[in-house]
From TrEMBL:
Pfam families: Acetyltransf_3 (PF13302)
Keyword Cytoplasm: no
UniProt-recorded Gene Ontology molecular function terms: acyltransferase activity, transferring groups other than amino-acyl groups
The protein's name: GNAT family N-acetyltransferase
SUPFAM superfamilies associated with the record: Acyl-CoA N-acyltransferases (Nat)
Protein keywords: Transferase
Length: 222
C-alpha cells in the first residue's frame, strides 16, 4: 500500500534541510552527503531505518523494539528525503513525521545524512562525546559506493571541528570488513580497545578499535 502510494505523482513537502550550525544543532557537508542534526521525526525514523536491516543488525544486535522491523516501511522511509523527496500526501497522512525532533543533552550527538544529488536519506552517524566514540550506518541501497568512507570522514570532522575532541575512537566487529575498510579509508588507524563486545541481543563479537586525531575546535554552536 505504501509503495503504490509512493508511485503517485509527488508534490514536495518542503521539510527543512539545515546547511549551517545553529545553537544546539549542527550541519556539515562532504562531497556527496549532507549531514545535519535531525529536524523532524521523519529524519529520525529514516536514520533508524538505515541501520535496521538484517545485514546491519548482524553487527548491531539491537532488540526488535528498538528498530523499525517492517522492511516495506523502512524502504518507503529511505525513499524519501527532507525536502523535495517527501511527498506532501505522506506528511498529510502521517503528520507526526513533520513534528520537530528536539535533541537532548543526555543523548549522543546524532546526525542524519542525505545524498546531495537526490536529496534522499542515506544514513547517519552518532558520537558519544563523553566516551569520544562514533558509529554509524549507510542505508542498504547506498552501500558499496564509497559513502561509508565519507560517513566516517564526516564523523571525524564533526568530532574534532564541532564537538571539540582531539581524538575520536570507533570499535567494530573484527569480521566487519566493510566497516573496517571504510574507517581506514577515512584515516582512522588501529588503536587499543576491548577485544570483545556484547550486543544488546546478548551475542558477543570479537572487536577491533580505531582512532582518528585532529585539531579540536568548536563550531558556531555556543
Ligand atoms: C559499514 C558501512 C558503513 C560501510 O559503508 P559502505 O558505503 O558500504 O563502504 P564503502 O563503499 O565506503 O567501502 C569502503 C571500503 O570497504 C570495502 N568494502 C565494502 N563492502 C565490503 C564487504 N562487504 N567486504 C569487504 N570489503 C568491503 C570497499 O571495497 C572499500 O574498500 P576500498 O576503498 O579499498 O575499495 C556500511 O556498509 C554499513 O552501514 N553497513 C551495515 C552496518 C554496519 O556495518 N555498520 C557499521 C558498524 S561499525
Amino acid at each position: 500500500m505504501i509503495r503504490s502510494l509512493l508511485r503517485r505523482r509527488r508534490a514536495a513537502s518542503g521539510l527543512p534541510v539545515p546547511d549551517a550550525c545553529t545553537p544546539g544543532r549542527h550541519a556539515l557537508a562532504t562531497r556527496r552527503l549532507l549531514f545535519y542534526t535531525p529536524v523532524t521525526k521523519l529524519d529520525v525514523w529514516a536514520a533508524i531505518s538505515a541501520g535496521a536491516d538484517p545485514d546491519a543488525q548482524r553487527w548491531q544486535g539491537n532488540q526488535a523494539d528498538q528498530v523499525i522491523s517492517d522492511a516495506d516501511t523502512r524502504r518507503a522511509l529511505l525513499h524519501m528525503g527532507p525536502n523535495g523527496a517527501t511527498p506532501r500526501w505522506f506528511i498529510r497522512s502521517n503528520p507526526e513525521a513533520a513534528e520537530p525532533f528536539e535533541p537532548s543533552p543526555e543523548m549522543p550527538e546524532f546526525m542524519v545524512c542525505v545524498r546531495r544529488d537526490t536529496g534522499r536519506y542515506a544514513g547517519y552517524f552518532e558520537l558519544d562525546p563523553d566516551k569520544g566514540e562514533i558509529g554509524g550506518n549507510i542505508a542498504p541501497d547506498h552501500r558499496g559506493q564509497g559513502l561509508g568512507t565519507e560517513l566516517f570522514l564526516a564523523g571525524a570532522e564533526f568530532a574534532h571541528g564541532h564537538a571539540g575532541l582531539p581524538t575520536v575512537r570507533a570499535g567494530t566487529a573484527t569480521e566487519n570488513l566493510a566497516c573496517r575498510r571504510a574507517l581506514e579509508r577515512a584515516g582512522f588507524v588501529p588503536a587499543p580497545g576491548p577485544a570483545r563486545h556484547t550486543l544488546p541481543d546478548g551475542r558477543q563479537l570479537d572487536t577491533v578499535w580505531y582512532q582518528h586525531e585532529g585539531t579540536a575546535s568548536a563550531c558556531a554552536r555556543p
